[in-house]
Design the sequence.
């Protein structure tokens, strides 16, 4: 009788353990598979195709002025691409604005090549002029890979943008009451199986900011930071954030400044 | 002489006290910032079903957008007020039925679709429950922003109190926790009454896999 009970208990325990381990295993393996996939294609991130196209676009005369982007000042002086993305967003004297990489590239295209920024703003992601932008972004961010994220808030406009971004990060709206903080203000949380970085802390901010722009395996596309933020807002059930608008730059400033000291791992490779 | 001393002393203490009051940084809700408001207004455009009125905040959203204040001791009365507003907005089921079909409830819980600018006005909005909660233990793809609901009624029982509490909490989680991360399901009509009854069944039907 006692033997039977012990046996029963033991079987129950094993069964419970098995169920527990199998579900834990399944979860673990989903994350592991993504890690494995990353490893497999680490030597050849598909972003390289965009990057090569971007380098060509950088050096090819275009626009009404038939000029290249080679004199574009991304913050470290005219024509300096290496390391520039690691220090963006930043204040630019000529525009008297804090700009992220994409809004700054629009300025360069306008000033150097005579292109109308509105065409870029209005174009859908992955299409038309945005396609060129995406390639150029891939080229520029690759040249900061391995650098430390180093964003300044020394200029009053930079500090102001950071403060606005922090406020925007916590701003709730829409039919689901979501803000960025709904998903990105706590450690160790997930949506379904997707791990969520806590962007309010250096470590989590570096995990987010440091790995975008990235090649997205699920969509087979290279996504810029502007597109990443745009899709966050879509899922927050907000209206459409205008390309290069201040809220996108302010949020970038908040994330980048919080991520300071982390490593630029762009272009990243994401699910 | 002694009385004068006392008066002086009192005056000095009074002064120190007053200075103390002035210098203690009283935590208050963040001020309206015209610059921030303008940034928000200028940065978005309407797209599809997602109109610009989605960034017009109601009182709850405004309060919860300042978590430092919202979680402070000073905000306690305000939290209670927000909870009351939300509690008062909850409607009990019109047909008196709290429990629907758990199988439909499971489908609703699985879907995270709807209400984005890429959705249509008639896209059925999902409950999005598994995004944040563990529910049926067989579903391994669940989020962890909310607590696990596996074994929900097995642990809490099937009493009237539990049923009403669960109804209220699904309808409007902010009735209990002013700044809960959970969307106000009925307040924004994300699910209709029938759908909420079905999700209720997923948690509270003894036959639901949640309680097996």
Sequence:
């Amino acid at each position: 009788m006692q033997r039977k009970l012990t046996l029963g208990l033991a079987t129950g325990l094993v069964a419970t353990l098995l169920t527990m381990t199998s579900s834990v295993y399944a979860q673990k393996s989903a994350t592991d598979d993504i890690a494995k996939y990353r490893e497999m294609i680490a030597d050849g991130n598909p972003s390289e195709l965009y990057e090569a196209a971007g380098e060509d676009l950088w050096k090819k005369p275009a626009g009404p002025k038939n000029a290249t982007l080679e004199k574009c000042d991304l913050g470290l002086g005219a024509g300096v691409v290496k390391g520039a993305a690691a220090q963006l967003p930043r204040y630019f004297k000529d525009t008297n604005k804090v700009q992220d990489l994409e809004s700054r590239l629009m300025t360069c295209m306008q000033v150097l090549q005579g292109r109308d920024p509105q065409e870029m703003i209005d174009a859908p992601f992955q299409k038309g002029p945005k396609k060129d932008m995406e390639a150029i972004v891939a080229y520029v961010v690759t040249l900061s890979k391995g650098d430390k994220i180093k964003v300044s808030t020394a200029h009053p406009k930079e500090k102001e943008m950071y403060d606005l971004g922090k406020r925007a990060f916590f701003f709730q709206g829409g039919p689901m009451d979501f803000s960025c903080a709904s998903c990105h203000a706590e450690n160790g949380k997930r949506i379904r199986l997707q791990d969520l970085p806590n962007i309010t802390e250096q470590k989590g901010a570096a995990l987010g900011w440091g790995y975008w722009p990235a090649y997205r395996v699920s969509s087979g596309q290279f996504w810029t930071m502007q597109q990443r933020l745009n899709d966050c807002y879509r899922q927050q059930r907000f209206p459409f954030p205008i390309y290069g608008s201040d809220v996108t730059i302010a949020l970038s400033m908040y994330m980048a400044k919080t991520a300071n000291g982390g490593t630029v791992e762009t272009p990243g490779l994401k699910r | 002489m002694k009385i004068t001393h006392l008066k002086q002393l009192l005056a000095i203490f009074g002064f120190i006290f007053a200075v103390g009051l002035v210098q203690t940084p009283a935590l208050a809700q963040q001020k309206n910032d015209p610059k921030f408001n303008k940034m928000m207004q200028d940065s978005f455009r309407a797209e599809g079903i997602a109109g610009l009125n989605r960034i017009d905040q109601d009182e709850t959203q405004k309060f919860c957008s300042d978590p430092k204040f919202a979680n402070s001791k000073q905000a306690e009365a305000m939290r209670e007020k927000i909870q009351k507003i939300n509690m008062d907005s909850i409607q009990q089921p019109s047909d008196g039925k709290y429990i629907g079909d758990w199988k439909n409830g499971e489908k609703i819980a699985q879907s995270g679709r709807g209400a984005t600018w890429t959705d249509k006005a008639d896209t059925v909005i999902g409950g999005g429950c598994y995004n944040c909660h563990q529910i049926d233990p067989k579903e391994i793809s669940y989020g962890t922003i909310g607590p696990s609901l596996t074994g929900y009624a097995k642990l809490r029982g099937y009493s009237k109190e539990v049923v009403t509490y669960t109804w209220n909490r699904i309808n409007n989680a902010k009735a209990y926790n002013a700044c809960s991360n959970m969307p106000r399901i009925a307040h924004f009509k994300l699910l209709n009454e029938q759908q909420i009854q079905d999700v209720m069944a997923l948690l509270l039907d003894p036959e639901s896999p949640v309680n097996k």
User: Anything to note?
Assistant: The two ends of chain A are 54 Å apart (CA to CA). Residues 45-270 of chain A form a domain with the Cytochrome Bc1 Complex; Chain D, domain 2 fold (CATH 1.10.760.10).
